[in-house]
């Protein structure tokens, strides 16, 4: 795996200066070089880069934890359970340097060729600007049975921009041999190299960003009521649906190109149902069952041979919305039935279960980003700095919806800001 490269600051020592929602120091009017909104992987990478270059940086995070969509539950059972991101995609992912730094163990969990694309894709006529990937494939004459199987982990192809997928080589991604990896002690192990020594204020839900050529003033709900932070620059790493629902008000309003970009992009819905069984339910030596088209099935039991079997049944897009429309008991019953059908044997009732509804979560209002038809230019539009002081970063500015994409985005967006300062 690659070693530490340009992220030399990762080698510095020190623990994160986390201030919890309760007992935070009374410093409502501190001046900062940069205020970073959000302590997901993008926000942490951004703050890491800026801090390592000597700037005074404060990270404001609405939740009482860091990580955002990286959310490892260490309390559910004896093995860590990923309620959000679970996989490192490929041996070339940039986040391997975090794995190295953290000294984390990984295990390969999936390695298979998923899709044999029609040679027509990407080589035939370019898609029209507002084509969905489904419309494009239909026009190319690719039979539906030969479309890439994205539905269990993503929005269906009818909701994706064909132009985006072709320009970004997404069709190639689905056809390339896949080697995915899991972090044995939990994905959140990779957060420590980013967060160490940073000033991160938890429980700070930013409500308003007032900006001018002179800097920004952020107003937020904190443990002591309304708080304000002033900074010369702001990096906003807010999830797209938080931006779309105007949870955070920008004063003056953002330029039209930014508002249009926010309207054009969207996040998928995703749900994970995690169940612990008192005996193995997947065939021996199997940790991933083939998706049934709607649901995906993962076991984490091989992480600890002595642990009972823990299985994650999960869905995104239409299948997630269908599950989320049901009461929780029925969701689990549906997940159990599907697991039994995929495993070829009826599983016992789980001894324990947990779930996380990303759509109801007020700090994400959905899971990872997707790029709808017509929105292929939106990420670049949102990435343009506003008034020289306000920088957006993260999924919505890159169109990437992976941990490695967030890691790169935090660094890339702030490299520009550093050049500017
Ligand atoms: C169920 C699921 C499965 C996934 N699986 C994988 C996978 O296997 N592999 C992979 O690479 N990626 C996966 N992803 C996607 C990956 O986790 C994300 O693309 C990545 O973590 C995004 O990081 P981010 O920092 O840009 O955004 P986020 O992680 O969403 O961070 C944004 C932060 O902003 C905070 N925030 C929101 N509103 C406010 C506010 N008003 N004030 C202050 N803070 C605020 C949030 O609390 C959050 O911490 C998955 C995601 C989910 C949900």
Short synopsis of the structure:
The protein has 421 residues and is an alpha/beta fold. It is built from 13 helices and 21 strands.
Average pLDDT value? 87
The tally of beta strands, per DSSP, is 21
Straight-line distance between termini: 34 Å
The gyration radius over C-alpha positions equals 22 Å
Strand % is: 15-25%
Bound compounds, each kind once, are:
flavin-adenine dinucleotide
By CATH reckoning, the class of the largest domain would read Alpha Beta
The number of distinct structural domains comes to 3
Describe this structure in words.
- The chain is of the alpha/beta class and 421 residues long.
- It folds into 3 domains: 191 residues, FAD/NAD(P)-binding domain; 66 residues, no CATH class; 88 residues, Polyamine Oxidase, Chain A, domain 2, CATH 3.90.660.
- 26% of the residues lie in helices and 24% in strands.
- It is built from 13 helices and 21 strands.
- The strands form 5 sheets. Strands 1, 2, 3, 9, 10, 11, 12, 13 and 21 form a 9-stranded mixed β-sheet that branches.
- The structure holds flavin-adenine dinucleotide.
- Flavin-adenine dinucleotide binds next to helix 1, strand 10, strand 15 and helix 13.
């Amino acid at each position: 795996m690659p070693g530490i490269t340009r992220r030399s600051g990762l080698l510095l020592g020190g623990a994160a200066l986390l201030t919890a929602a309760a007992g935070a120091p009374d410093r409502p009017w501190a001046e900062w070089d940069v205020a970073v909104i959000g302590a997901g992987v993008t926000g942490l990478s951004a703050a890491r880069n800026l801090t390592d270059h000597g700037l005074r940086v404060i990270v404001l995070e609405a939740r009482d934890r860091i990580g955002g969509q990286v959310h490892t539950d260490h309390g559910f059972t004896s093995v860590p359970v990923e309620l959000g991101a679970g996989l490192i995609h490929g041996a070339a992912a940039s986040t391997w340097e975090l794995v190295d730094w953290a000294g984390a163990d990984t295990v390969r969990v999936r390695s298979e060729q998923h899709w044999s694309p029609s040679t027509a894709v990407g080589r035939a006529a370019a898609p029209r600007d507002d084509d969905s990937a489904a419309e494009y494939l239909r026009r190319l004459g690719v039979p539906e049975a030969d479309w890439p199987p994205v539905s269990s982990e993503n929005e269906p192809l009818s909701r994706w921009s064909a132009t985006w997928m072709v320009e970004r080589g997404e069709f190639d991604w689905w056809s390339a041999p896949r080697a995915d990896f899991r972090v044995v002690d939990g994905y959140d192990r990779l957060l420590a190299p980013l967060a160490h020594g940073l000033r991160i204020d938890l429980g700070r839900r930013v409500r308003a960003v007032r900006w001018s050529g002179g800097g920004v003033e952020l107003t937020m709900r904190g443990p002591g009521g309304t708080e304000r932070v002033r900074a010369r620059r702001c990096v906003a790493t807010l999830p797209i649906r938080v931006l779309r629902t105007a949870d955070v008000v920008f004063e003056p309003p953002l330029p039209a190109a930014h508002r249009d970009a926010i309207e054009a992009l969207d996040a998928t819905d995703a749900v994970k149902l995690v169940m612990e069984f008192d005996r193995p339910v997947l065939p021996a030596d199997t940790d991933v069952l083939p998706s049934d088209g709607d649901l995906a099935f993962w076991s984490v039991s091989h992480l600890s041979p002595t642990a009972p079997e823990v299985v994650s049944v999960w869905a995104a897009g239409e299948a997630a919305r269908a599950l989320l429309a049901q009461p929780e008991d029925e969701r689990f019953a549906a997940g159990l039935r599907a697991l039994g059908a995929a495993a070829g044997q009826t599983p016992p009732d789980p001894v324990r279960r947990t779930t996380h509804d990303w759509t109801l979560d007020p700090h994400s209002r959905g899971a990872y980003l997707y790029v709808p038809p017509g929105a292929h230019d939106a990420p670049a539009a949102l990435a343009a700095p506003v008034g020289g002081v306000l920088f957006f970063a993260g999924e919505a500015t890159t169109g990437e919806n992976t941990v490695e994409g967030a890691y790169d985005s935090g660094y890339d967006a702030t490299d520009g800001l550093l050049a500017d300062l």
